[in-house]
Design a protein that fits this description.
Layout: E1 9-14, H1 15-19, E2 29-31, E3 34-35, E4 60-65, H2 75-84, E5 98-104, E6 111-117, H3 125-129, E7 135-137, E8 143-145, H4 155-159, E9 165-167, E10 186-188, H5 193-197, H6 204-212, E11 217-221, H7 228-235, E12 251-254
Parallel strand pairs: 1-5, 4-12
Antiparallel strand pairs: 2-3, 4-11, 5-6, 7-8, 9-10
Helix pairs in contact: 2-6
Length: about 260
C-alpha cells in the first residue's frame, strides 16, 4: 500500500484504508493530565480571513462524483494552484491543498480517481488540537488557518485523517493578496473563501472541472434545501470519507 501523501498525483491507497480503518488523532498529551484538547477551540475570523460575506445559516460544501473524474485529469489541482499561489512539483513536501488520489478495491481491482482536500469537518480534529486557536471553523462551516497565530507546531497535520494540510518550510513566491502564505505555518484548502465572501458562488476547482466538461464537482450550500447540491445529496446516494469518525464532513463523494 502506498501513502497518498508521498504521491500527490495519482497516489494509490486501499479503499478500506480511507473509508473504514484507523481513527483520527484528536488528543495529544503534553504532560500527565495535560492535553492539547484543553487548549483548542473555535476562534473567530482574523483580519486575513474576512467574514463579511457570511451567509446566515449556510454550510458550504462540495459534492464530487468519482464516476465522472478521469484518472488522467488534474484540472482541479492546477486551478487551485493558480488561484491560491502554490506550486506542486511532485515532491513529498509539496503543498496539499488538493491532490488526486486513486482508490483501489483490493478484492476486485476496481479503481476510482478522485480529488481529496480539506473536508471542512463539522467537528474538525485540527481545531481541537490547535494550541493557539489558529485553526478555526467559521459559522458557515469553512475550516481555516490564521497564519498570524499559527506557530507551526503541526499538531493539526497529525490530527487530520485526510492528510489535507501541509507545512510551509521554504520561502514562497507568487503569493496572492487574498490568500497569504508564510514560512513556518500550516496551510490547506480554504474552499476559496475569498470567492465565497465576494459572492462568486463557486470555487476554482469546481470552475475548472466544469470547464473540462466532466462536471464531476459541485459547490453550494448544503443547508439550503433548494440549492443544487442539497437536492443532489438528498436524491442520490453519497458518502463521506471515513464516515466512521463522525466528523460531519462538508465534502461528499458519489460512486466510490
Amino acid at each position: 500500500m502506498t501513502n497518498p501523501s508521498k504521491k500527490p498525483k495519482g497516489a494509490e491507497i486501499s479503499r478500506r484504508d480511507i473509508l473504514k480503518s484507523g481513527a483520527a488523532l484528536a488528543t495529544l498529551t503534553l504532560a500527565p493530565g495535560v492535553t492539547l484538547m484543553a487548549f483548542g477551540g473555535k476562534a473567530s475570523a482574523s483580519e486575513d480571513m474576512p467574514a463579511d460575506g457570511l451567509k446566515p445559516g449556510a454550510r458550504w460544501g462540495l459534492l464530487i462524483d468519482a464516476g465522472k473524474c478521469p484518472e488522467d485529469c488534474s484540472a482541479c489541482v492546477a486551478a487551485c494552484s493558480t488561484e491560491q499561489g502554490w506550486e506542486n512539483n511532485g515532491l513529498d513536501t509539496d503543498p496539499q491543498w488538493i491532490r488526486k488520489v486513486t482508490l483501489k478495491e483490493t478484492a476486485t481491482g476496481r479503481t476510482n480517481s478522485l480529488p481529496v482536500m480539506c473536508q471542512h469537518c463539522e467537528n474538525p480534529p485540527c481545531v481541537d488540537v490547535c494550541p493557539t486557536g489558529a485553526s478555526f471553523k467559521r459559522e458557515d462551516g469553512i475550516v481555516l488557518v490564521n497564519r498570524h497565530t499559527c506557530i507551526g507546531c503541526r499538531y493539526c497535520m497529525m490530527a487530520c485523517p485526510f492528510k489535507a494540510r501541509s507545512f510551509v518550510a521554504a520561502p514562497v513566491t507568487g503569493q496572492k493578496s487574498y490568500s497569504p502564505r508564510g514560512v513556518g505555518t500550516v496551510e490547506g484548502c480554504n474552499l476559496c473563501v475569498h470567492k465565497i465572501d465576494r459572492g462568486d458562488g463557486t470555487t476554482a476547482c469546481v470552475e475548472a472541472c466544469t470547464a473540462t466538461g466532466n462536471n464531476a464537482m459541485m459547490f453550494g450550500d448544503l443547508n439550503d434545501p433548494q440549492s443544487e447540491i442539497a437536492i443532489a445529496v438528498a436524491t442520490y446516494a453519497s458518502q463521506e470519507l471515513r464516515a466512521d469518525l463522525g466528523l460531519g464532513l462538508g465534502v461528499r463523494y458519489q460512486n466510490i
